[in-house]
Design brief:
- It is found in: Cytoplasm.
- The chain is α/β, with parallel strands linked by helices.
- It is built from eight helices and nine strands.
- It has a single domain, classed as P-loop containing nucleotide triphosphate hydrolases (Rossmann fold, 3-Layer(aba) Sandwich).
- 42% of the residues lie in helices and 19% in strands.
- The strands form two sheets. Strands 2-7-1-8-9 form a five-stranded parallel beta sheet, sandwiched between helices.
- Strand 5 and strand 6 form a beta hairpin.
- Bound molecules: guanosine-5'-diphosphate and magnesium ion.
- Guanosine-5'-diphosphate binds next to strand 5, strand 6 and helix 4.
């Protein structure tokens, strides 16, 4: 199913920044992928990372895979909107593509952790909508991490041990989603996005439109 934009194209609105965070394996990537496929008005922010690519990951699409040295140069040059160390690697959101997407009247989707979410919140709270995704149980989280089978047992164990820390930040998010049924979760994130697009403050062209309706 394809969802239409929130309002008429001739009623401009401010773009928003939709953040999805979760512990590894809660289903965030699946939800993001589905959202991007169904909705032409939102684009993914492709992060830079120093972690090596997993099998099947494409440079420039899943991540910009960079060396630690390049990452540090980008930090020094102010090229990141936010950046953080997660597990043993660095991750950061390149600034320019986000600004370009918002300027073009589209929304931006971020798959970032709680540290990055906090940093974005400091600079752009009004444009930020944050969703935290929780697994239905710890056993289910572990099962998903194992069946993904892209990481070694050691990496899975490490991610499990970090899940508790990550989940402790649920309280900092606008929306909390328990992902027990993937289709339902996708529909719910879409519902959040649709509702947020309709917020009055984002509809910067509405006063003019209503004046037109009233013949003024
Ligand atoms: N702060 C921040 N976190 C990021 C960024 N990109 C990815 N992350 C987070 O880093 C964590 C690890 O991501 P990844 O290595 O792809 O493994 P995943 O947990 O299986 O998705 C996830 O929580 C991501 O949301 C970024 O640009 N900034
Ligand atoms: Mg991910």
């Amino acid at each position: 199913m394809t969802f239409p934009p929130a309002n008429l194209p001739n009623v401009p609105r401010r773009g928003l920044m939709l953040v999805l965070s979760s512990p590894s394996g809660a289903g965030k990537s699946t939800i993001s992928r589905a959202l991007l496929e169904r909705d032409a008005d939102i684009a993914l922010s492709v992060s830079a990372t120093t972690r090596p690519p997993r099998p099947g990951e494409v440079d420039g699409k899943d991540y910009h895979f960079v060396s630690v040295e390049t990452f540090q140069q980008m930090v020094a040059a102010g090229q990141f909107l936010e950046h953080a160390r997660v597990f043993d690697n660095y991750y950061g959101t390149p600034r320019q593509p986000v600004e370009d997407t918002l300027a073009a009247g589209r929304d931006v989707l971020f798959d970032i952790d709680w540290q990055g979410t906090q940093q974005l919140g400091q600079n752009a709270r009004a444009d930020l909508v944050t969703v935290f995704i929780l697994p239905p149980s710890l056993a289910e989280l572990e099962r998903r991490l194992h069946t993904r089978a892209q990481d070694s047992a050691e990496v899975v164990a490490k991610r499990m041990s970090k899940a508790g820390d990550e989940m402790s930040h649920w309280f900092e998010y606008d929306y909390i989603l328990l992902n027990a049924d993937i289709d339902r979760s996708i529909a719910r994130v879409q519902a959040v996005l649709d509702a947020e697009r309709l917020k009055r403050d984002r509809q910067v062209g509405m006063a003019r439109f209503v004046n037109g309706l009233r013949g003024q």
